[in-house]
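Postdoc handover notes: sequence design on the structure in folder B. Input tokens:
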């Protein structure tokens, strides 16, 4: 017989309320990534029962990521790599980032010298800036500051200040990660460098998220699917964002024409890219090569003449040396 007991909260802790105020802070670093695949035609059509059709083999050929620092944009960076070993390259990059971020977060900065106005702010503060509760005669009042920038943030309870720590979690965000990208990186992430993986699975082959604990650091790489929070296409989601807020894309554009092209939905001949030799071609594919048999993408009116004109304009304006370079346009758009 199982032994169990009902444990009631203490009188002082009978009200359920939010306590982890450090979760309200932005994580210092986040990674936004995407990968693309060559769609190689399968020689074998499928199983003997005829119910399964092996149409294409997806082989990852390109990975791009943007490392975003929330407090110092000089630490943000964009990288793109295209080759057979792109997944191994990406895993190696994640390891390097983890050790670099761990070093940054461990190197706490002393608080800046407070100005006269900041001292007055501290002395006259009646509420903790972290929990928004008033200071009582039993509370110890302290000066809270950011350990990454040394900036003074406000007066706080001592307990609140001690618990208000920087997060060592680095979100690695893919759009449709659960349905696609996770299948390419799981194996190499498990064996690429030391550290266990914690899974939140849907089944044996599909994951809601997983976390790689990087051995030798306090960093945890938490892979999440942005589609689970924003279940729309990137094209639709980006249309909701005002141009003034697209600061990252703007930083990679030299002119307004480039910006206007790179902030709308791109087009890519997925079925046409069926081998590595396609990347050596110096001309854009014809309109018919943008047809996708799996999704019936590319048939009129889906792939219209204006779509092709847009792609041609992007290709010419950005002076792409070959078809392989057009993926840079798409990744920057994302």
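Designed sequence:
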């Amino acid at each position: 017989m199982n032994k169990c007991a009902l444990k009631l909260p203490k009188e002082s802790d009978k009200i359920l309320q939010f306590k982890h105020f450090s979760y309200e802070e932005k994580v210092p670093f986040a990674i936004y990534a995407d990968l693309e695949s060559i769609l190689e035609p399968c020689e074998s059509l499928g199983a003997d029962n005829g119910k399964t059709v092996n149409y294409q083999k997806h082989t990852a050929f390109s990975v791009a990521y943007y490392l975003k620092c929330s407090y110092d944009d000089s630490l943000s960076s964009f990288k793109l790599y295209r080759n057979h070993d792109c997944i191994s390259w990406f895993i190696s990059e994640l390891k390097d980032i983890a050790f670099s971020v761990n070093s940054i977060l461990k190197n706490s900065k002393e608080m800046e010298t407070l100005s006269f106005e900041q001292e007055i702010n501290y002395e006259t503060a009646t509420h903790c800036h972290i929990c928004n509760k008033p200071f009582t005669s039993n509370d110890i009042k302290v000066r809270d500051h950011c350990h990454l920038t040394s900036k003074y943030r406000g007066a706080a309870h001592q307990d609140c200040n001690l618990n208000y720590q920087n997060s060592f979690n680095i979100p690695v965000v893919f759009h449709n990660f659960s349905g696609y990208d996770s299948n390419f990186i799981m194996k190499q992430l498990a064996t690429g460098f030391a550290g266990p993986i914690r899974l939140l699975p849907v089944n044996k082959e599909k994951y809601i998220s997983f976390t790689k604990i990087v051995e030798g650091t306090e960093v945890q790489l938490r892979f999440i699917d942005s589609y689970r929070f924003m279940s729309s296409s990137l094209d639709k989601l980006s249309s909701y964002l005002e141009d003034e807020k697209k600061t990252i894309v703007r930083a990679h554009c030299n002119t307004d024409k480039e910006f206007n092209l790179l902030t709308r939905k791109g087009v890519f001949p997925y079925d046409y890219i069926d081998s590595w030799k396609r990347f050596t071609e110096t001309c854009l594919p014809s309109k018919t090569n943008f047809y996708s048999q799996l999704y019936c993408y590319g048939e009129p009116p889906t792939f219209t003449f204006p779509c092709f004109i847009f792609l041609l304009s992007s290709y010419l304006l950005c002076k792409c040396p070959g078809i392989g370079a057009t993926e840079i346009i798409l990744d920057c758009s994302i």
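Context for whoever picks this up: Confidence is low (pLDDT under 50) at residues 297-301, 324-334. Don't rerun without checking with the PI first.
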